Amino acid sequence: MGFESSNGTASPKQLKFLIYGRTGWIGGLLGKLCQSQGIDFSYGSGRLENRPSLEADLVAVNPTHVFNAAGVTGRPNVDWCESHKVETIRTNVAGTLTLADVCREKGLVLINYATGCIFEYDSSHPLGSGIGFKEEDTPNFIGSFYSKTKAMVEDLLRNYENVCTLRVRMPISSDLANPRNFITKITRYEKVVNIPNSMTILDELLPISIEMAKRNLTGIYNFTNPGVVSHNEILEMYRDYIDPDFTWKNFTLEEQSKVIVAPRSNNELHAAKLKQEFPELLPIKESLIKNVFKPNQKTAAA
């Protein structure tokens, strides 16, 4: 079975994408991107954990590539997974593996949107050092059950030569009304921690994931913009571009731990592998200004 990378990009007419995660944020944005690029696509109707339903989708759609943007993140947040462990395993582990296996049988590349929230700063990757976790590094954050399941499935998926795993972190888009948007979340919090993190600007990176499918890229990629940005830096940009009267309060990780069930991951991911494949990839702060704040600008930026 060949999953060799090809840099000759197929024309939109030859592509047919099957996307899982119709009701999710990334799944919805992917559909819009396909429409704007003239790429034929269908949403999967099968449940990830139901193998016959996935096989039926592949027969019905006959796709050239499959995208998995489905998964359990929990509502309103990942704390839900702490009390719904079996449901989380069913979708995030059993379901994702089943989809990868069905795609492999059909010789199809699976683009799998995963998470980079499986690492935390440590003595080898200290906060502020600029030393990011690489694709081959072993996850060291198991503070939340959600992250634990994601690390498990990523490790198993390494054995599937047809899977492209994209580690998304703290996703941000130009839609500042979307409650899933990291910026929208932190502007609504009563208090925020102030820690530099790697993040994913969807407006820039989702089109890149479509390009990765066209190139039949596989393996793991840290799917974040290069560099880190802190909560306060984002909120300062928000104040400067969007709302000059906006104010916020900080609190410590210790104080935060009293109001959440499971700890949250903070890390820097090394983005050189993605940048090498896509040299046009912008550093996180530049991407924030170009793709998120400038398009939404309401004030004269300081």
UniProtKB/TrEMBL annotation:
Q: Which pathway, per its entry?
A: Carbohydrate biosynthesis
Q: Name one Pfam family in it.
A: RmlD_sub_bind
Question: What region holds the RmlD-like substrate binding domain?
Answer: 16-188
The reply on keyword Isomerase is yes
MF terms from GO for this chain are: isomerase activity; methionine adenosyltransferase regulator activity; oxidoreductase activity
Q: Name one GO cellular component term.
A: methionine adenosyltransferase complex
Q: Name one GO biological process term.
A: UDP-rhamnose biosynthetic process
The name on file for this protein is RmlD-like substrate binding domain-containing protein
What organism does the UniProt record list as the source? Salix brachista
